[in-house]
Design a protein that fits this description.
The structure holds 3 protein chains of 3 kinds.
Chain A (H helix, E strand, L loop, with lengths): L1 H23 L8 H14 L4 H9 L1 H21 L20 H23 L8 H18 L7 H25 L23 H25 L1
Helix pairs in contact in A: 2-3, 3-4, 4-8, 5-6, 5-8, 6-8, 7-8
Chain B lengths: L1 H6 L2 H22 L3 H23 L21 H32 L13
Chain C lengths: L8 H20 L1 H27 L5 E4 L10 E4 L1 H25 L3 H19 L3 H20 L4 H32 L4 H6 L6 H18 L7 H9 L2 H22 L7 H19 L5 H26 L2 H29 L14 H14 L6 H15 L3 H26 L11 H24 L4 H4 L1 H10 L6 H19 L5 H20 L11 H17 L3 H20 L5 H29 L14 H16 L7 H8 L2 H11 L1 H11 L10 H23 L4 H21 L3 H32 L15 H15 L5 H16 L2 H26 L15 H19 L2 H11 L8 E3 L2 E3 L4 E3 H25 L31 H7 L6 H20 L7 H21 L1
Antiparallel strand pairs in C: 1-2, 3-4, 4-5
The chains are: A mainly alpha, B mainly alpha, C mainly alpha.
Chain lengths: 231, 123, 1045
Amino acid sequence: MLKKFFAALALFIVAIMFYDIASNYQERQQLSGVAQYYVEKGPSELGAANLVTSVVVTYRGLDTLGEVTVLFISAAGIGLLLRRQRDDKDPSPQKDNAPCSEIVDTAFHLLFPMILLFGIYIFVNGHLTPGGGFQGGAVIASGMMLYLLAKPNNTFNLQLLKKIESFSGSAYVLIGALGLFLAGGFLDNRVLSLGEFGSLFSAGLIPVIYVLIGLKVGAELSSVLTKFRDS
Amino acid sequence: MFQDLLNTPLSTVVLITGFILVLIGLWGMLMHKNIIRIIVGFTLMDTGIHMVMVAIGYLTGGKAPIIEGANKNIVYVDPVPSALVLTSIVIGLGITAIMLSYAIQIHKAKKSLSIDDCAEMKW
Amino acid sequence: MVNSLTNPLNIIIITLLSSFLLPLIYQKSEQRAVNLFFAVLAAFVVISLSGYLQLLSGLPTIEVLTAGIEPPFSINLRFGIEEAFVTLAINVAALLGAWYLLPHLKTNAPLMLLFLIWIMGMNGMVMTRDLFNLFIFVEITAISTFVLIGFNRHNETLSAGFKYILAGSLASSFLLLGTMLLYFQTGTLNIDDLVAHQSLLTGPIGTAGLVLIMTAILIELKPYPANGWGLDVYQAAPTGVSALISVGVSASYLFALYKLLPLFDTLLPLIAIAGGLTFVMSNFMGLKQNQATRLLGYSSVGQVGLLVMALALLSQTNQADHYLLIAGGLFINHFLAKAGLFWLAGLAAEKDIKHWSHLKQHPVIFVLFVVLLAALAGLPPFPAFWAKWALVHTLVESQHYIWVGCILLGSLLEAVYLFRWYGYAKSKTNETAIVCQARQTFPIKLMVALLLLCGHAMAINFGLQPERVLLPVYAALAMLLLHKQPSYTKALVTLLITGIFTLQVLPTLTGLSWIFGMIFLVGSWVLTIGSLYKGTEQRPSYYPLLVMLILSLGSLLLATTTLEFFLAWEFMTVSSYLMVSLGKNAEKSSLQYLAFSLAGAFFILAGFALAYSETHSMQLSSFAQLAEHTVMIITLLLFGFLIKLGGLGVHVWLPGVYTDTDDDFTAIMSSIVSKAGLFGLFAVGIHITTQFNDIEALMFVLGWFGLVMALAGALMAVFQEDVKKLLAYSSVGQMGYIITGFALTSHMGWVASMYLAVNHVLYKGLIFLAIAGVLYRTNTRLMYKMGGLIKNMPISFVSVMIGIIAISGVPPLLGFGGKWMMYNALVEKGWYLQTAMAFFASAVAFLYLFRLIHTVFLGQQKTEHADIKEAPITLLIPQVFIMVIILAFSMFPHVLIEPLSTAISPYIASTITWTGHLLETKQGYWNGFMVMNVVAGIFLVPLFILWMLSKVTNIQPVKQFNIVFAAERPESPETTHYAYNFYAFYEKALGFLVKPNAIHFWDASAEWAHSFGAALRRFYTGNGQTYMAIILMYLGIIYLSMRAI
């Protein structure tokens, strides 16, 4: 009881802090320093219409690389934590899951290709429209989720996923490193020409990077889903 | 009074909602014994923070920061918090996944999901 | 430059590239993956090392821009000299840690890649200059830590890991929220840009943002009381992982705090409080801890707290020049020592520190263990010693006295619990052996080597010649190489080394230093000969430590600055402590000795620092310029020196130490080492002669203190059965006179004091050596179990007899001169009441001295002692030598007094004059030569007559068993011995004076400290939710206090 009271008191103080912040909050009337620069210079500097994408992939590209790393180590960590014990009685994942309902099965056949296509569309057009590699990857993974639900006894080719992860991850780093030699610095997208503003093949390396991120995220999330299902 | 409330900018509403969500999440983390519920609490708190982040970047009447032309008069919302929130979501996902795999292992090892059963070390 | 291979950005590129590929390579060939893994870690070291060297040679700081766009619009990394140093440390520890963890790591490709990314995350936290990017690296580090803690999936690691995740995710949420609030206020995320826009960070939102960020980083640094989860992790995680959490992860958070400090201007006092509180409290709690890894956890938390506190305080005082030296020294010391100890704890594979005695079977590991403990405790020559010296000086200068108190108290507690651990390792043998290969000890050895190297570098940094001031340590380490040789060889090498050293040092000394040189160096050389009688024992560490002790006493004499003095003092303390700990069952008493000695040393440190703040000079001679703080400084120094002398009230360490140490070492301890305190008094005293008026009241108190000590020591000695305890208390009494002599601050007083000191060296050395022989033959320390040994051990008898005559101060031996001068000096000063007291004390002293010779050597002999032999010849040689000196000094006192007088007269004008053998003072005269002849005549004539009588009458010796008990057999027959409880009748009258009040007081203090530690850790319920609530409360309290301001 004392413990709960203490916790409630702590929460109350945090609430006071939030109250102070909210009651003093005045919405900004104009963009602040950095954002102003991005809006003014961003399109001409990097050639991407979607400013969020320019920020994510180039201006704060190191964050994104770190983000990819976080996802990567989470996937690796889950694999490690959920690995099978050597003396595990049950050598292989259960293969006798009940089959899914007909509705799910039908919907799967109808939706699966569309979901994949939609995911790809999102990451390919990340520099032009809302979306990008992570969003696209997540959409692809949701398709994979549907697959796992519809085919409870199937499993992915984990080898293939691993290869996709490794390939797209290292390609991302290598392409980023190209910027060191061919452009202004690590993760500079201006290795390729910026192209015509607003078209699919524009904004230098941004689409390439987003494709790689999309593949990587899709593969990683799918393997995470499998690992959780099989554990 | 009532009028004031209606005039509250959207971002403030989102901000306050975000804070309330953070508090609810924290409440869940502190008061529920079940590890899964604690994890749910964490995701609520995380989402609350993301809402606060988005609110901070919002300008009333601002458009999504996708540049369509050289029109100087269009007000765009701040692209930076949007970019940051994207990163934070992925990181939150990673942590949640690790927490869940811990929960699975703790359940396997101790046959219990109560946080009180994880107190074998003290002092 | 940017494109070169040693670009720090390459750390990130290489890591990611190789870890993305590692799983594929591992499938093909495990070995190839392991090779790649080590190649990457080695590349980290190369990159940071070459960067460090380049920066050291004066190249400008490396700024890495990403995306080819200038900050603040893109993220930039910085690689300056500080970053290079910290990353180098992290990467070296990572390489060695990976080597240590390899058997685990290579079972799994994900483990290896997690390890790599973990280290990269730490490097990134150090280098990045962007607040949000810092958050990313924090998360990268945190997630890899979570997984690495739990990878073995034991019950405990899972619990600890989950609690860590909860705490870590709260902290990173704070960081994220705080970052966003700062962005809202300033519109930038770049740290330098934020600092430039600091003026915008006001108002509730700015404050809340700063508080959130600061709390987040503090929480990750595990502040008390919000750190229960961290301790669980240290305890449960695999030791290799704990080691890197304690050093690597903490290092990167510390650096993050360091680079954000300019933002936290208004929060600095709170940061300092958080750090100081953690340092002191975790060290209190360490006292109660018996789990090895958790103990190391407490120590880690404490050390990090100290660093946090130092960072905050130093940036408040704007002492930029000391900043790096102090923070760097503390940091690298904690870094190397803690990693080494965690690895060692892993090798020892024993959780409870009470069972660590199996370490003894592995001498190399044992020595590593002791060195690491000493480093952690901040003893010289390790970097923390220098850093603490500078830190205390800087803080005293800026008048942060309370903080200095915290630092010294915490350091003392830490030393106590660390060496309590050593005591357990030293105690009874545990049968289980340590299984380890050289491969596993390699990283630990390297850490120890680096520690010594850093210590050496620090000495150079402080403008000293390391080969001179650190000689005691190096000589001791060199002596360790002889550990397989028989004891004889080691003793002879010791005599050789100390002999050469003496010949080198002694001619360079003059005046009082020369006299102390004779005491310290020649005296200990002679007494060392005595130790040859234990020739058959191995004594692997006795002689190295003896060399260290003697050389440190020598360095003490050579010291001209406070730093050199303190350094030598600490060496002496450590080496004598370790020697004490070698005795059987000496765990408790040696720990007591260490605690008191270190407390004394810290008083001295505080005194020196205060003096420095006034004179801005470390020269001992600059004490002459003291004016403002003289009384305070002298009081502090007095405390320090009196503890070493065994002053009343703090004498409790002394009987235990004298009883439990090896008998030959007790002689050195009592007659030589105790004089170090006296040397300290004089070394300072000679420089403040012009300020004697200022400290008159203090000296008056000291004079009384000395006399009370003389009386109490004598009284306590009277009621002892244990012969070594008797002599120990006798030393307390004798030192009392010496202190009073010093307190007189007159020429005669000082001469008397020094004269008594020299006497004390002679007769205590003599008696202890003689008693060592007796104990060696009889195997008991209880006097009533001895008796009638005069026939078996005539030479020892003569030694003791000469010794006690000399002590008691009756004519004709030299003690008389001492007492005579003392009374003269007291009267001269006008301290009449004190003179009476001195008389009384010396009468009491006679009681116990009589007992010493009567109970041990005279009376009836015990049957079991019938065929005891005389003491070994090696013990007798120094005794005879000392006896000759005593007789010579007694006959020709001017040989001794004249040098003393001339040594002191440069400081205080002389009031005594000599004509031939005649010593004249205002009060009278003394002719030692004549007294000797008269007394010899008085004694020899009756002796001759008695001898004649014994020839003519028929004296029949009575057998022991002529005594008949009246049909009753007592349960413990020896208590019916007439010598048992010899002075029972006096005890009724005077016993109340010798109640062990001081012992009770200190026992109660220790008990209090332990229960305080126990109370402090009530917060640590083991429940993850409680820990979260405490973390939230921590945030709340910081916020509320900022809000109040």
